[in-house]
Structures
1.
Amino acid sequence: MARIKENMIHGLFFLNGLVVVGVLCGIFAILVFTAAPAFKEISIVEFLATVRWNPTSYYKPSYGILSMIVSSLMVTIGALTIAVPLGIGTAAYLTDVASPRVREVAKPVIEILAGIPSVVLGFLGIVLVGPIIARVFGLPNGLNAINGSVLLAVMALPTIISLSEDALNSVPRSFTEASYAVGATKWQTVVRVKIPAAISGIFASCMLGMGRAVGETMTVLMATGCAPAMPRNFLDPVRTMTASIAIELGEVPYYTTHYYALFGIGLVLFVITFLINMAADAVLNKYQVKVR
Amino acid sequence: MNREHIKIKVKDFNFFYGEEQALKNVAMDIYKNEVIGIIGPSGCGKSTFLRSLNRMNDVIPGVKYEGTVTLDGKNIFAHGIDVVDIRRKVGMVFQKSNPFPKSVFDNVAYGLRINGEKNKDVIAEKVEKSLMGAALWGEVKDRLSASAFDLSGGQQQRLCIARALAVEPEVLLMDEPASALDPTATSKIEELIQELKKNYTIVIVTHNMQQAARISDYTAFFMMGELIEYDVAGKVFTNPSKKITEEYITGRFG
Ligand SMILES: Nc1ncnc2c1ncn2[C@@H]1O[C@H](COP(=O)(O)OP(=O)(O)OP(=O)(O)O)[C@@H](O)[C@H]1O
Ligand SMILES: [Mg+2]
């Protein structure tokens, strides 16, 4: 009897796993099949390696998405540059240094931050972050890559903070005590013992934060200026892959090369996210700290 | 023996985990360069007492204490005292060995580095000296960069001792350092303690009566949070003043 129950539970979870994998493969298949017709007319090299994106040109439509790829990566890297140190630092502070009172206040604040709709953040990007950036850098307006990076950092922060906090909290207390016992301060302990011991969890939190940033659409659409050109630096307006899809998919005539090409962008996005995750996994396996 | 200098003086000391009182009115004078053996049945508060001497109990939420513990005449619980400084002077080896997930070398070097030592040669030299002090050097000198977790249980415990020695504390607290070790490793640690006594004041918890009798100069017997008897080891083990002490050391309970 117990055996049968055991087997049923096992089967159920196996089925669950199968469904997840199935959904993932399904999404991939749909993207591939819908994007494929685009490549009857566009060469993959043109698609991935040229900069001009002008699918509605009457004479010679062009379908280069390199500037979008670069824009997406730029905004993401910018966001991580801000969010990773800030997020890990905040997590370290909250787990090991802050008083319980501070912790009690900070927890709900971070949760609220996670719940802000992206359109609201985009709005803040236009009316708050933009003007500040324009002021600081002396620009006509502040809708550019750095604006997007700041907003995406804000979006990624709650994920990074709370998951890093979990990782830090699961470091055995015996490590902390061993560190204190030789006269380490709280900061030294968290930086030199706890963070290294929790590095795989912290790394995973950053990857999840990055996942949010790469895929985020509305905020970057609103706050980055949306110019489909190759950005030269962080003060240039950019248009990410996600923003392009969101802007154009609503208006494109169905079953045209343009329509298929937008799915091609989606496919590229999917592959990039997939690769990032694979790379993260590989790094994790390599640097996994051996813990008993 | 130098009985002049009281290194640590515990007075009217009470300790609580939340509402539960774990130590009751403990008073004890610990002399410099002596080995104090602490014995008593499981759960009587030995670890709690030991961890009070370097304020390691501070890391547990909801604890309270009353009374004083002075180190060289200064109350370690006084307002404005630097806990980090106390812990540097009062080193600790824990009941369960707890090396860091780092290399053998980095485990020992850790205390030096966080205390600001930057000179690589000095660090290497002190790491070697500490590992020798912990009777581990011979076994690990060829694999200093191996993970500490690759060492055997007994080696890990001696590594923890080396880590504690590296920062050259004045007092060494040891919580059953030999509880998970085989007889050979245990006798190594006992020899080590005799050796360390020259430079350190040592407070050691042990469950093993013979061990306590062998290594300690003074012996303290705890029961249910109270210090029942505290005297020269020879006296406690041959002619204890309390009946209950005698019952415990002759193995009639506990
Ligand atoms: N973190 C804690 N929270 C609450 N109670 C605790 C905690 N640690 C110990 N105690 C309690 O305090 C009392 C003394 O514990 P302590 O660990 O000091 O005993 P011990 O003499 O070291 O025992 P053992 O020989 O088994 O190590 C016990 O009743 C124990 O349950
Ligand atoms: Mg104990």
2.
Amino acid sequence: MQLKEVLDKYPQSEDYLIEILMDYQKHKMHHDLTEEELKTIAKHLDIKESRVSSVVTFYSLFSLEPKGRHVIQVCHDVPCHVNNQTAVLNTLKTMLNIDVGQTTDDEMFTLEYTSCLGACDKAPVMRIGEKTFMNLTSNKVKAIIAEYRGRKHA
Amino acid sequence: MPEQKMLTKRIGDINPLSIKDALEKGTYKQLEKALKMNRIDLIDEVEKANLRGRGGAGFPMHIKMMSTAKQESTPKYVVCNADEGEPGNFKDRYLMENDPHIILEGILIAAYATGASKGYFYIRGEYNQAISIMKWAIEEAKENGLLGTGIQGSDFDFDIEIRTGAGSYVVGEEFAMIESIEGKSGRTRVKPPFPTDEGVFGKPTLLNNVETYCNLPFIVDMGGENYSKIGTKTSTGTKLISLSGNVTNPGVYEVPFGTTVREVIEDLGGGVPNEHKIKMVQLGGACGPIIPEFMLDLQIDFERFEEFESKTGAGAIIVMDERQDLFEVLMRIVKFFQHESCGRCTPCREGHVHLEKLVHSFFKGDGNPNELYSLESLARVMHHSSLCGLGQSSPISIISSLSYFRDAFHDRMAFGGGEK
Ligand SMILES: Cc1cc2nc3c(=O)[nH]c(=O)nc-3n(C[C@H](O)[C@H](O)[C@H](O)COP(=O)(O)O)c2cc1C
Ligand code: SF4
Ligand code: FES
């Protein structure tokens, strides 16, 4: 989706800034926002660029760095931790051959930690993009990653 | 003690995506009744019910409602706090995904009573499903004349918009949330003024947790006096508990106040699986105390929880068995808060850096008596001098561990410690 299309969806008022950024970033292949785009948004809402930048750096779901096509976020808070989250993480690291905070060479996957996803009754938990996977085991993780790798242009 | 389902009674029975179903099962009937009542009488019922906030702090609802109602400045706002970012909590998600209309009915009653004309429903950005369901519910409510102008044929006008978070825990704090709704970074400020005086866009704002609003239809239905008979004398009503960790049946349970932590874990949660034993339990979420097994007969009520100097009322219970290492758990908790700190005040911003180093020392088995002393005093300083609830409550897990698991710290000192 083009930035202009997203901007047109919302009232031209600065309190929609976070909604606009979230909506637009979602549609981007590498889940990042560029300086150029922040400028355009600031101009559209008639606010300072620094205001937009401060919001983008404050909220952890925004990124100024390009990421992999699929961002994998593993929850590492206590309820997941006591339910063997480490096994899930290790399986992911081995399969993707990257560490937390890195992106695979083919730019398919980025591996990250996330704070609690509010699904602690089904721990351990991870998200890929907007999809939450629960009650994970190493085998389930293997199947999920294989499935994502198998998709051509998903 | 068994569950006492009130807020969650219809869950499983009701289709969250159908307002028709919700209406058939009686939703919005209490709104109809409330709209015929005098606003002040309505708030009086909430006072008789003694409803206290379910988002953590347990503040009396009627005081906030009355102070918003009395404001002359307009428009007035109602904000529903569905940010739920505290590790171990998932009851608000459960309500949103399963019975969105009971929440909207509660918000509408609060809006009518306070004279608010506009609402914001703030949901954390990670809750995709809850966001879609609430959006759908709001659309359906609009189509059915339950939002907009002249609601249910009265002269009450009210509209509500969803706002989503973007990955920040501190935005769950009321002032930070107000900033975020205005499209800004979620930084908190000193109070007063309170949101009821100066909230969203500087206007009077009633801000409450999802579960708190859900109680209003039941208070209207049974009357404040009858409602106040549920629970204990001073903590009335029911509480939704998010039960997780090393437990056979984790999930959301609704119990009357006065139920003990042990009853929730053993009777409802089925205890710890695979013949493991409970070692410790964290109450309230990451910001709450960690207590040992022998304290589990603690009652769930506002007074007992306040004894821990913490605002642990959100209702999480995280069970940890004997395989879990206290220091690894503390490391996770400290890292969570360090990551989520907004950086505005020094005790919290700098404190977490040192806290992490100190806890890590014991985690590695390298602690010493000086570090034990520093850890204890730093935790207290942060607890007493941080600007907002994040920095104030983050050290609670450490302070409680130092009280109840002191030996564990000695065991993790290089050379076996000295102080013992
Ligand atoms: C760091 C921090 C995070 C908070 N997060 C939440 C939250 O996710 N949901 C919530 O209802 N209250 C949260 N609160 C409490 C709110 O500030 C506020 O007290 C509450 O929403 C009021 O509603 P209640 O009276 O119905 O509980 C948080 C407080 C702090 C200090
Ligand atoms: S206590 Fe922490 S989160 Fe709260 S204002 Fe201070 S730095 Fe920010
Ligand atoms: S701790 Fe992982 S989902 Fe809550």
